[in-house]
């Protein structure tokens, strides 16, 4: 009967592990911030998410080529661009070569009478023509005259010049040897737009590989140049790789460290291997659960896995150290209820995170619940069956007795502890208004060096750094374009008033049908124009007969078919319109990005006031929106953690039915949490959501210690073996989390810095306060 | 007045050529002298003759130069206009509007501006990228002729002739392939 039970348990466990592994091999892993941004109700936040996932800026890769000399860099840039342009993964590859210049020019020139806002009936009357032609003649005398000379017979009113003025606001990088270079001339620059969205990390990684390959091919093997890449997609790929590499490295080191520690304690390789079974099972179950529940697994969740090794290994330590030789039945009877309560307490604490609207947080909640339940269940139901008959570990009673001495002396420290608590409380109270960091950038796993390179390349290439967007929503393309034209008029006034450097609008490239019709209707008939022109050139040094191409062009513009979206195909503006004019379900949306004047910030209030009264038009500050979003989730997380605390208290009250006892159990944990918070604040760390999770973990792990120390007056003094088990469990936890504190990835570092000191304090405070409570009883 | 100046300027030349070897005067020597001028301020009068127009258009204003590649042309008549060239960037301000152009986007305009900038900077290499150079006259009264050396430029410009005295540029004549031409007279503004 017993034999069957053990076989059943082991078989079920193996099937479970295989199942989890199968799920994990099909899982997707991400590392971008978007996983931390949930679906949210406001239109601005919805837009923010879409832009982060799929916006123009999210699909941009900025490439720099450093080293060698300018001609070599330009040659590499051109060869790379040529190869990448043939790849359908890339929507556009821009390095200053005039690939679409001909098409762009033809689009503007052939449709100038539909595109130019200056086309009005007055402009084609006698006076209007006279003034416009007179201006054009003045322009001939200027240095730019060389450019307009050949166009003048076709375009004496200068519509082309008008269009150029409107759209020459942005300043592309300088050219050298036929390719873009940076301001300081040290780099060749390329701006690449991927077809895949920035949130598709796998596709971004593929794009990066292809850029790398094109570079290798162009630069050759003996290259003295270096390739640099940046952009949101590159950041996602890099952080995913960094997190993966760090998690792998830290896992190996922490497993090695914990294994060495345990080997020293157990002096039995079998015990060591068996001791890791619950940990591995828990980690696999956690990742599989998150993968099933969320579709993708975030890198932070993986980092958390490393940390969990430190906690889940405790259960097997308790089993091995606490149970007398081969008396696992007795251990199950005497100690399992305490451990089970510890696991339940942790679950109660973490369950609240499942309700978070913040997927990153919900992932951590699900991960820890699945991981802890599995690790504990494997320890309880599978591990005893796996132990061989001759299983034994080194007797640790000697260490336990030494610890007992320490424990008996611990209460002497209670005044010191009380003093520290008061100090910690004072620090927390003094800094209470800036303990939390509510900027989303605090979560970013991107390194400072990468951010610096990004800033540099962005400044050099004039790539959009989309912070302010005017967003217009309508139900038809025509309506949204008409509204864009109105907004563009308002924004143009703001440009003239010096509030803005420039702005972009889809209506620049594709005017509404209404505007195109109006402009077409402004053009006079051939006879009328001929007559007006003859009168208009009177007094000007030009003969009307020289302008006959103008008459032909206007005549054909009068019957020209109106511009459609498809007419932009093959021009560089197609990409711009694709990003600025979005068809979303039954909704049409226009985005008008604003550019600030150099070294100034846009005054959002002024722009909002100017746009006031226009229906369905909003100004979105992407940076502020994302910070606000994060800040609201931070507050939600704090509330949820408090909810978790209430759940823990409720659970303990139901089990013990004694408020005093529950207070005794929780007091050392609360003190540990406050001390760690004060310590971090004192060291100048503003707390993020990951610190908060760390504090929750301190409570979850610490509750085990507190429960072991907790006892009624009639129970005997704590056994030396139990003390030893807690000491070892604590050491392994500190080893696991302590390593995270040395990570370059700020989010992992945050968790390590919180948990490692927190669990040490939780153990010490539990010893100090438990004894005091005992004496009082 | 002009004639008088020229006569005066011949005197040191006569002294010069009698004292040293006349053979040392060449394009390199001219470029070297021009390169010594790090900045300059002058007035200009420009007359353009265009087939399209019945009569030539005349403009005038100021020129400012700072080595190696900053050039400003402030037209005052017939309309206030400011042209600023810095490296590859060309800004033209007319009334309320500013046009930003990249010289590299307009090779003809770039070659044209570089003929002036290259001469002022004494940058023979830059000039020879686009033009074949030939020099006539002497240090006190020289004529530098630039003939485009590539087919693309030859379609636009047939010849540029720059005349000067010592390290000063006095006039620039441009003959375009289509028969249009321009003549710019430059006069140095004495710097205090």
TrEMBL record, chain A:
It is found in: Cell membrane. Residues 167-387 form the Membrane transport protein MMPL domain. It is a multi-pass membrane protein. The chain crosses the membrane at residues 247-266, 273-294, 300-321, 341-358, 637-656, 663-683, 689-709, 721-741, 747-770. Coiled coil: none annotated. GO terms for cellular component: plasma membrane. This is Membrane protein. Keywords: Cell membrane, Membrane, Transmembrane, Transmembrane helix. InterPro entries: MMPL_dom (IPR004869), Mycobact_MmpL (IPR050545). Its main location: membrane. The keyword Transmembrane helix applies. It comes from the Bacteria.
From TrEMBL, chain B:
SUPFAM superfamilies: Prokaryotic lipoproteins and lipoprotein localization factors. Keywords: Signal. InterPro entries: LolA/LolB/LppX (IPR029046), OM_lipoprot_carrier_LolA-like (IPR004564). Residues 1-22 form the signal peptide. It holds the Pfam family LolA_3. It comes from the Bacteria. CDD domains: LolA. This is Transmembrane protein. It comes from Sulfuriferula nivalis. The lineage of its organism: Bacteria, Pseudomonadati, Pseudomonadota, Betaproteobacteria, Nitrosomonadales.
